[in-house]
Amino acid sequence: MKLMPALPESIFDIFYLCFAIISGFLLLKKAAGRKNVKLMGAATLILGCGDAFHLVPRVLAYWLSGDFTAALGIGKLVTSITMTVFYLLLEYVRTDRYHKAQVQVSTIIIWVLAAARIALCAFPQNAWTSVDSPVSRGIYRNIPFVIIGVMTVVLWLKDAKSDKPLRLLYIAVLLSFAFYIPVVLLAHKIPLMGMLMLPKTVMYIWVICMFKKAARTN
User: Fold this and answer.
1) How far apart are CA 4 and CA 1, in angstroms?
2) Which of 62, 111, 144, 152 is the most exposed place for a label (fewest CB within 10 A)?
3) Under 8 Å between Cβ of 180 and 193
4) What pTM value is reported for the model?
C-alpha cells in the first residue's frame, strides 16, 4: 500500500462526505418554508450520499485487502445518477429563487438530457463492475451530462448576477467540469489525471458553502 497518497486522500474524502451530508441536513432544517433553501438542502444531501457509494469503497480499498472492483463500479454508477439528480435540483433552485415561470424550456431540456444520461448509465455495456469497462461508454454517457453543465453555467451566469451569495456558482460548476472532462477522456491512458477529481470535489465544497451563505441571507 502506498501510504502517503492513501492517507491524505482518505482524510479528504471522509471530510468531504461528512461536510456534504451534515450540511444537507442542516440546510433542510433551516429551510423553514423557503423552497429554494429546501431544494439546496436536498441537492446537497443527494450529492453527499451519492458520492459515498463511490468514495467509501475507495477509502476501504486503500486500507483493506480484497477486491473492491465491483463495489467501486456500482458506486460510480450510483454517483453518476445522483450527480445528474443534483443538477436537476439545481435547475429548480434557480427557477424558484429567481421567480421564473413554472414551466421553463431550459428545465424541460435538462429533464430530457438527465433522462438520456441515466438511461445511458443503465446500459449493461457500461460494464461497471469490470476492470476493463469501455472508455467509449464513459464518453457517450457524459455527453448529455456535459450539455447539462454548459446550460447550468449559462443560466446561472445570466440569472445570479445580483445574487451575492450565489453569483459565483457558475464558476464553480464551470471549473468542476473543466477538471472532470480530462479524467473521462484521458485517465485510462494517464492515470495521474484521476487526481483532477480532487479539485473537482473542492468545487462542490465551494457550491455547498455558497448554499449555506444563501440560506443565511435569503
Assistant:
1) 9
2) 111
3) no
4) 0.93
Report in angstroms the alpha-carbon separations of 201 from 70, 95, 180. 23, 25, 10
Q: Is 97 exposed, middle or buried (0-12, 13-18, 19+ CB in 10 A)?
A: buried
Q: Compute the Cα dihedral for 176, 36, 50, 118 and give only its sign.
A: negative
* Assigned C-alpha cell, 160: 445570479
Give per-residue pLDDT as tens, 70-94.
999 999 999 999 999 999 999 999 9
Neighbouring residues of 76: CB distance < 8 A, sequence distance ≥ 6: 54, 128
Residue 214 C-alpha cell reads as: 444563501
DSSP per residue, 28-50? HHH-TT-HHHHHHHHHHHHHHHH
User: What is d(CA 116, CA 83) in angstroms, rounded to the nearest whole number?
Assistant: 14
Cβ atoms of 54 and 17 within 8 Å: the answer is no
**DSSP string for residues in 77-123:** HHHHHHHHHHHHHHHHHHHHHTT--SS-HHHHHHHHHHHHHHHHHH-
Average of per-residue pLDDT across 30-48: 95
Helix (H) or strand (E) holding 5: helix 3-30
State how far the Cα of 44 lies from the Cα of 46, in Å rounded to an integer.
5
Please give the torsion angle defined by the CA atoms of residues 99, 105, 107 and 110, in that order, rounded to the nearest 10 degrees.
-150
